[in-house]
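Support reply, case 0932

Customer input (verbatim):
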Amino acid sequence: MSQEYIEIRGARENNLKNVSLRIPKRQITVFTGVSGSGKSYIVFDTIASEARRQLFETFSTFVRNFLPRYVQPDADAIENLSMAIVVDQKHLGGGSHSTVGTITDIYSLLRLLYSRVGQPYVGNRSVFSFNDPHGMCPECNGIGRKIGVDLSVFLDMSKSLNEGAILFADYAVGGFWGWGILTQSGLFDNDKKLVDYTAEEMELLLHSKPYKVNINGAQQTFEGIIDKFTRKYITGDVTTLSERTQKSVAAYMTFDPCPLCKGARLNQKALSCKINGRNIAELAAMEVDELIEFIQAIKDPVAAPMVNSLVERLQDVINIGLEYLSLNRETDTLSGGESQRIKMVKHLTSSLVEMMYIFDEPSIGMHPRDVHRLNELLQKLRDKGNTVIVVEHDRDVIKTADHVVDVGPQAGSLGGEIVYEGSFGDLLHADTLTGRYMQKTMPIKEQFRPAKGKLRIVNATLNNLQNVSVDIPLGVLTVVTGVAGSGKSSLINQTFLCQHAESIVISQAAIGTSSRSNPATYTGIMDDVRKAFAKANKVDAALFSFNSKGACETCQGLGFIYTDVAFLDEVKTPCETCSGKRFKDEVLAYKLDGKSISDVLGMSVWQALDFFTIKEIVRKLQALSDVGLDYLTLGQPLSTLSGGECQRVKLASELQKKGSIYVMDEPTTGLHMSDISNFLAIINRLVDSGNTVIIIEHNQDVIKNADWIIDMGPEGGNKGGKVIFEGTPKQLLNAKHSLTSAYLAPNI
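Our regenerated output:
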């Protein structure tokens, strides 16, 4: 059969410069290039977006009204697409009722197994579901924890309702929906201190069932304050709320194991049913590599089909490097990399073919030991007859490509072109940044900074840590290494940071990417720019914000108008009043050294460095320049930036803060090989200025340039949680028991 291709002609999304290319079907194509070069605009905003848009157009207009809306990409033609499945790094939500077992359907198979061969027989598969009333523990409703409200934090018993006795913000004095309805209901003496309430009055306040009360002639619903809190924030899925709201309500909660099911989530009838002496909750608590051995030992002929399916799926989890997870692990506790790999496992058992699988940097969070497992998974998907498209920076993943597309030559306005297409072998000889850096190896550090003291961690036992005691040297660069699940994050992000809360943390958490947020607002540059404009023109600084007084009244400072045309896609058009400049005309008339506020937002970072002399602005601009973002314009919406660019905007913002201890969790995420040396230069400046820097990292160039290594392992989960090496990178090369050493040595 002749080779078929996905064809793109004249793609112009964002920074793409009339890009045309052919992507071979049923092969692995890897897109490479520096962060911000345009890889994501081709793969996600052009190919994936158009495939989804065309698929959704096959549904009725009624159904389409409930589906995400995808705008037709800016391209002359996109042809020969298949249905797209995008496997991205977004965290899996779902709250406490969603687990690794439920999201992969492995737990569904376990439920079927217990309903068929478990003894004694207690019912069909629904009896073993903690999300089903027939199976869930009646005490905790299948959560496994008894979540309550800490009344000592929620109430001040020495005050009355009018004095602010309810400390939870929803009931702040003066508010209508909480405090207003409560105090105007006529049910309470608003000046009576809570300590003087009778038992009946306190029960009414805390646990009254909802019922209507008349307030100023209108019917409003009054409900006991604890029952209402429980309904909104405990039994509801709080992961759908903002991070700020989640943090604020968590302060009022207590978390204890369920006294009835002891965390098993199921009722006593379901827990009484066993296979080979174990109930289903005990199997769900096992790590996957232990669970597969238990399943393989089940010899009942009735169970054979279910055992075979379970073994296949569990082996897929092991093959992708997640053998340390248990099926009862809640999905919202997984990292972005773990979430992405769990999504991959879901698709491996699919019988669908001729699909188009799109992966966004799937090697993120992977130790080099596990990358070959990822490559085998990608090849397995390809061999089933699917087209696999991968955006990636990792050398070992790029090597597995049948076809490579290199986007560049640089980032932003200096990118957006195809600089190489072809085989991996020919890429090594291509005169592109990726081609040159594929052959470069960074030398291992020879001179190491001496420690100026030490920060002790003593007898740490959190999660899988096995009574770990370790010293972190002061005044040097320490890199914490080890396979996924070995205990790196438990040691540093949880144990160490609890003891050193003053540390400046640069985590993997995504930054807000709305169209109203840009590099200038996120880094605080905009605040200083507004003040400078206000001082020069003797007016209110709020005029120079498109989120405040200065916003164009027609588009509310967006710069464009959304028009909703019944069941059709929203139409986005530039605002005719401000011509996309986002500000009122009178605001644009004010100048600073001959430039309007819109002119400044249109400047690139390097242009702004030439323009401004204000010390604070220059310092923040220099931080953006230091992380390689000279080309970004100050007003470019963060929603248009790539993952690597967002990571560096965040890094630039955090590095401005004054501190003495910096903790970074895989800061090279999204960075091209050519960006790593720039990143290391920033880190070395920090350390040379007297700071202590601790980095959790898999990147071998970062490991080679550490002053001190702490290697966790030897494996993940309950086979990890130990410090297996402490010393310099050169000493690590001789640590034969270390997996990190085994993969570092060949790259020296």
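We compared this against your earlier run and they match. Two observations from our side: The first helix runs from residue 39 to 56. The two ends are 44 Å apart (CA to CA). Please reopen the case if you see a mismatch on your end.
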